[in-house]
Design goal:
CATH superfamily of one domain: Winged helix-like DNA-binding domain superfamily/Winged helix DNA-binding domain
Structural class: mainly alpha
Distance between the termini: 21 Å
CATH class of one domain: Mainly Alpha
CATH topology of one domain: Arc Repressor Mutant, subunit A
Helix content: 55-70%
Largest sheet: 3 strands, antiparallel
Shape: globular
CATH architecture of one domain: Orthogonal Bundle
Radius of gyration: 19 Å
Oligomer: single chain
Number of helices: 6
Strand content: 5-15%
């Protein structure tokens, strides 16, 4: 059978065995971890931080080279004109290539520039260094528990994808 779960399998209401306060605390701590990590990486990076929406678009384009603006908007659950504005700003910043598709000149295809690849790699390296330093300050038991939770948190993130 496997571990495949569709959104149809996920109930709209929390399961009765889950404590709503604990579930809310999990959401709060994951959000706070994300914010603090973003701020810490921004302090150590050699460039100004990008708005979260621009980062999401860059990561989407990295995972899906030649994605169209329309498809990117659909995948990001954003209005096409919003994504067009993000594209315009990222092209101006030298982080995104926007090219017309040969088959349909009305369709723009997106690709990361070398500068974007370097920036993302630097960001990921800085994030790994900062996380490693923080995790190393935990007790050995807490460190093992946090690291063991990683695949479960990844699965949880997958379950939240629409």
């Amino acid at each position: 059978m496997g571990d495949t779960v569709t959104t149809d399998d996920v109930p709209a209401q929390p399961a009765p065995c889950l404590d709503p306060a604990s579930t809310a605390a999990l959401g709060a701590v994951v959000g706070e971890l994300h914010r603090r990590l973003r701020r810490a990486v921004a302090q150590h990076a050699n460039c100004l931080p990008l708005p979260e929406a621009q980062v999401e678009l860059l990561l989407l384009v990295r995972a899906n080279p030649d994605v169209s603006v329309k498809d990117a908007a659909c995948r990001l659950h954003a209005a096409p004109n919003t994504v067009s504005t993000l594209v315009r700003d990222l092209v101006a910043a030298g982080l995104l290539h926007r090219e017309c598709a040969p088959a349909d000149r009305r369709t723009a295809r997106l690709r990361l520039t070398d500068a974007a690849h370097a920036r993302i790699a630097d960001h990921e390296q800085q994030r790994a260094v900062l996380l490693s330093a923080a995790v190393s300050r935990l007790s050995p038991e807490a460190r093992a528990t946090v690291m063991a939770a990683t695949p479960h948190l990844a699965r949880l993130a997958d379950l939240l994808n629409p």
